[in-house]
Amino acid sequence: MTSPTRVISSPTASRVTTIIQNTTVISPRSIATRSQLEESISTLQNEQERVQKKTFTKWVNIYLSLHEPTYYINDLFEDFRDGTKLVALLEVLSGQTLPIERGKKRAHCLSNVDNALKYLESRKIKLVNIRPIDIVDGKPMMILGLIWMLILCYQIEDSSMFDENSKDNRSKAKEALLEWVRKKTSGQIDGLDVRDFTSSWRDGLAFNALIHAIRPDLVDLRRVTRMDVRERLENAFTVAEQQLGVPRLIDAE
User: How far is CA 209 from the centre of its chain?
Assistant: First the structure.
């Protein structure tokens, strides 16, 4: 009589079987989908960086035009690398004269940027992981972060709309500005609720409502609500520039 055959599984064989059974077969279609997703995410990140760079460049050039001698930057990431324009920007913002080296060697560039960052630190402006070498090497995220910090500290925080307690706490400056906007735009347009500085502004209603709150004669909100998104944005930016003297830092795109 033939005895039943027994299959003796070793721990290794068992693990291999389990792995094979639990392995998900990835089809070329799913690989393509994942690749497309990663590409889309990368595209969105690049677009965000491009828009920030364009906006911050305009802001920087407004202040550099007030410097003596005047300066102008074409590429935010390249033109800040030697430190001279960064120092010039800080001189305009602070009203003080900062030390600068005119040489073009890397050591001169690092020294200029280092002087700029040390000045900011002396003003108790917290710079998180931003080093002179990052600016000299033209690292986009570091430069964008630095410019945003300057906007936050020299424009938003120093605005007269904040009380003394807000000025003493830089971390509250953005929240204070948002609260001010919410109060100004409240009740202007049905359903308008400004909750942030990103998605709440994309349809153009918040921009127009804010202008209307400041100068009701400049914006017809009933007409604005009938416009498409691009028309609303163009209307707000044009009115702000021509009637209120607000530099056009951003475009409808």
Answer: 23
pLDDT at 154: 82
Paired tokens of 179 = 């609260």
DSSP alpha helix (H) spans, the chain: 11-22, 28-64, 76-79, 84-94, 106-122, 132-136, 140-151, 164-167, 173-185, 205-214, 221-225, 229-244
Maximum Cα–Cα distance across the chain = 107
- Tens-digit pLDDT profile for residues 91-137: 999 999 999 998 889 999 999 999 999 999 998 887 878 999 999 99
Q: Hey, is 74 helix, strand or coil?
A: coil
Q: Which domains does the chain have, with CATH numbers?
A: 43-156 (1.10.418.10), 164-244 (1.10.418.10)
Choose between 177 and 63: higher pLDDT: 63
Would you tell me the crossing angle of helices 205-214 and 229-244 to the nearest 10 degrees?
30
Nearest partner of 208 among 170, 249, 244, 164, judged by Cα: 244
Whole-angstrom CA distances from 163 to 11, 153, 160 are 70, 15, 7
User: Residue type for 134, please?
Assistant: D
